[in-house]
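Example record

One chain of 311 residues, shown exactly as stored in the release files.
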Amino acid sequence: MKNQPLVSVIMNCYNGEKYIKESVYSVINQTYKNWEIIFWDNVSTDSSSKIIKSFDDSRIKYFCAKKNIPLGGARNKAIEKSNGKYIAFLDVDDFWFPEKLSLQIPLFIKNSKLGLVYSDAIWFNSENNREKVSLKPKNKLRGNCFRELLTNYLITQSSVIIKKEALISQSEWFDEKFHLLEEADLFRRISYYWEIDFVDQPLVKWRIHNQSSTWTLYEKIQMEGEMMLSKFSKMIPNFDILYAKEIRHYMSVMKRRQAISLWQKNNNLLARQSLYGFIFSSKENLILFILTFFPYKLYSVALKFFGLRLK
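Predicted structure tokens for this chain:
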């Protein structure tokens, strides 16, 4: 432990009693031992506080908010309490494999230009235990990757470790104006100023919860996406010119997701209208535009026939 830099593991919790033990034990069982858990309780109303306090380990530090606040703000509060040279994130419903910290931290030590290291992840649905690996070879990025992350963002939050120096160098940490894209915003900003790297194997299991996609959700994602691009435009000189291709691609994907949501709600005309200006941006958009002349039940058939994943 004497030669291991301290890693602060940020765990934010709101009513996570069902998964806390599994998540915390995945940190305790790390082969890398110099860590602390900053457990931030966002005013849970279940037995979360009782469970976390039952661990007899001085490395686990419990804090409880005075009032419930959005996740980005809660993560900022937890980071303020951290003492580590590196900041790791672990949501209470996810868990790590034992070698995670041992495999990621040495990459920072070897390369002082690194600001963020992530890994592959296994996404799983706890209801039926279906699993899949999150990344394909083309999605694994290292080096100066801001441009690529604008259009190809597949970083799993609980796989990420950030050098605290890289975090402090930002004008802000998690932007509390965001409620859905706060981590994508921060990690992209870090990638603009720092190099990133990855461990090419799954080091975390990320739990997928069954939640229906609604028009309101997609509307918020699009709104926050536009806010993020506007923010980058102010942060990066000539952003709109230098990254015009990436911006258009990003907006194309947002419009496609919006169209799928509207189509699912039988708003076929609105779905087509949301694609105007982006119909020929990709084959996925063109196929989706044609499909919206038919009932949504054809969606799964189209996926198999065209071999495409329209989302």
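Notes: Residues 215-235 form the longest helix (21 residues).
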